[in-house]
Structures are given as C-alpha cells and as structure tokens.
Amino acid sequence: MNAVPTTNPLRDKRDKRLPRIAGPSGLVIFGVTGDLARKKLMPAVYDLANRGLLPPGFSLVGFARRDWAHQDFSKQVHDAVREHARTPFRESTWRQLAEGFRFVSGDFSDDDAFDRLADTVRELDEKQGTGGNHAFYLSIPPAFFDDVCKQLARSGLADPEDENQWRRVVIEKPFGHDLESARELNETVEAIFPADSIFRIDHYLGKETVQNILALRFANQMFEPVWHAHYVDHVQITMAEDIGIEGRAGYYDGIGAARDVIQNHLLQLLALVAMEEPVSFDPADLRAEKEKVLSAVRLPQDLSLHTARGQYAAGWAGGNPVSGFLDEEDIPDDSTTETYAAVRLDIDTRRWAGVPFYLRTGKRLGRRVTEVAIVFKRAPHLPFESTATEELGENALVIRVQPDEGVTLRFGSKVPGTSMEVRDVTMDFGYGYSFTEESPEAYERLILDVLLGDPPLFPRHEEVELSWQILDPIEQFWANNGAPEQYPSGGWGPESADAMLARDGRSWRRP
User: Where do Basic and acidic residues bias regions lie (predicted)?
Assistant: First the structure.
C-alpha cells in the first residue's frame, strides 16, 4: 500500500507575500550624530521593528565622540523616531527596541574606544541574543573608512567567532571622488571584509519604483518587443531638486552634481533600463548584466557639444526669493563646482545602437522630480492632414521614481468630434491608487537586506569603478574649461543644456 503524504507540498511552499524577518543580529552606526543617522537610519530601524521585521533582541549601538551615556543615546533615538518615523509610535515596540540600545564614546583612532565597542558587542550577544551577527554602518566621510576598518580588524570586530556567525560592513556613497580614489577605497575595505560582506548603499536602488523597472520590463511581454533601437528614439533620465545645497557647503563644494548624482544614482538607473534580461534575480546575475551595460557606455566625441553644467543663480523657489550658489555661506566666490550637470551617453550594444541616453540632474530647478522617460520614434507614416496632428508628440513611457511613484504612458488618441484630430493623452498607474500596501522607505528595505545578507540591490566594486571610468573624462574636461554657466533658481537649468539636445533635434521633457 502506498504511503499517504502527511503534508501538502503546495501548501508547504513559502508564500512569497510573507515578510522576510531578520534573524538574531545587531547594527552598529558610526557617525550616529549626523543627519543621515537621525533622519533616515534610526527611524528606519524603528519602522522595521514596528512592522515586526526585526528579531526581539535586536541591538542598536551608536559610536561617536559625544560624551553620552546609554540613556542619552536612547533619548536621541527617541527624538529622531518621533520626528521622522513613518509608522505610528507604539510604546510596546519602543520598550522592546530600547533594551538593545548602547552607546560607545570615542574617536576613530582610539584603540580603547574600539576595545569598549568589542566588549559591548559581546555583552549584547549574551544579554540580547544577537548571536555574534553584527553589521557596521559607516555613516561617515570616506576619509575615515580606512581608520574604522583597521580598528574593526585590530579589535577583532570584523571577524566572526565561528562559521555560523557573520560580520558585515555598510558603506554610504560617495564611493571615492574619482576612479583612483574608488580603487583605493575598495582595496582598503576588501582587505578587511570579504566581498560578499561589503554592502555599498545607494539608497535610490531601494526605492520601490526603481525596483519596478525590473518588473515592468521582464514580467510583461508587451514591452520587450519595443525595448530597443528599432522603436526607441532616445531615453531621458532626470533627477531634479527644488532645493539648494541646504547648508552642506563643506560636503558639496568640490563634489558637484555629477559626482553626487550621475556617477551613482543615474548610471544605476541607466543600467537597469538598458540591461539584458538576467538569467535570474540572483545578485551575481543582476550584477553581470549591469556591468555589461556600463562597460559598453561610450562618451560623446566632443564633450563641449554633448555635456552641460551650471550653477544656480538668484531667483525664486516656492514663491520666495532665494540667493545663488556663489552667495551661499562658506562657498568661495570663485567656486567652479556645478549644481547642474547633463550629459549624452551612448551604449554600444546591438539593442541600443544609435539611441542616445540623456542624463541630467540639478538643484533649485522648477520642481522635485525623478523619472526615466523612454521616448519612442514617431510613426513612419501618418495618413492624416498636417493640421490633425499639430498637438501630437512622440509616444513615451515614463517611470516616475519620485515624488508620485508610478508609470505614465503617453500616446495619441482621436479628439471627440466629427473631424479626425489626434492629440496626446496619458494613461497613469500610481502606486498609491493601485496597492493598499504602503511602500517601505528605501533605507528600511536596504537595512533589512543587509541584516538578511541579501545583496541584489548593492553595487559591487566593479560597477563603481566602471561608473567612474565614464565620469572621470567629463570631470577632467570641465576642470580645464572655465566655470559653469549661471541659471536662474526656479528654472530648468542652463541654456547650454537645452542647446545640447537641440543639436540632436530633440528637447528635454518638462516633468
């Protein structure tokens, strides 16, 4: 007689809708007094706990030069959570989470401080049950990465005590300021931590809509046939901000818009849009396809014609008068740091041959928006009177990353009436209207991925170095060719950016 199975194999398959919950673990934040920790990291930790995605004994350790006791740190976290958390404040969640709070005071070169940190981690393993699993978040300037990594190695914090434990390091962008510094940084970190324990955070890759690019492309048969040079005229990738440098002169001057945004955020978006279908969504397969795209990127032959840069001048923002970049506090009068950057890139693959990718980013522009626009070629023959299509533009698929996440499809439709008149219309998909689930904040997703050891959204050093190989020649060209063009605050950038597209017979989309 055949044995009757005691379980239903279909029922035993894991429901993919179930949340992924981190196992025993803790997080150590270096630079815990900074804006990133206060506005993003600590609230994200609380929101994860509030959603039930952290283990009951999760620990959070702050490391900084402040002379704080554990309860002082707890108050700082409390205030940050109250001000910036996205989920409701629950006393039960807070009490459980706060039991794992610790603070270590010290300098990055202080051996005693790191020895105290090692003692603190061991104490948490014993009292909180963190199991020897700890992630070290370097929310600090890259100049200090070397000191911290060497201290983590010296104190034994970088090395798990047995093969069932893990230690991971999280690095915030910028990953260097050029190719040479990026390579030095990678060598420093990879000398201490194995490659699969290094998580380079690009928070844009944690945004729901960015991840939806993969779903849009590879889960829908209707898009694949037109996703190449036969039908696509060009692609525009835009990240516009309506604010200025917001008192960040010390960081921003000398960095500029291209290093701050194009090298990481926008080139990652380009790679996701242009990549071939991966064998799977395994991290290695995803990275392989992105690296192929970045290695195939070709710069314009004449950078003077196909790049543009600018600095915001005085103007208006939100109905209020604002000063220009050179009038900002601590910005030198002769600064050549750009607050706007635009560039044309081409991709030498069969899929994208002849299709230009236009990337732009800027501060103090007309509105805050990030989007990817796939602009299609015009129909080869229009059997209409010329007056019937005066208001007909090019078809476009627009992926809105922020602030109103979704997808818009623009196409031509007949205007109601007795005559044949065609006009552009749009179909909209918005996350807020289509799903009842609230999208997690980017840092929630990324911190959880670190704790789970799930790295598909984190670029490896090969991607970082390929991105710098693209940007370095542009930066060198700009450094040898005068100052950026001034553009009024509240507008859409310098005239040279419009001229750049006009030379190709195109124009920027108005988001």
Answer: 501-511
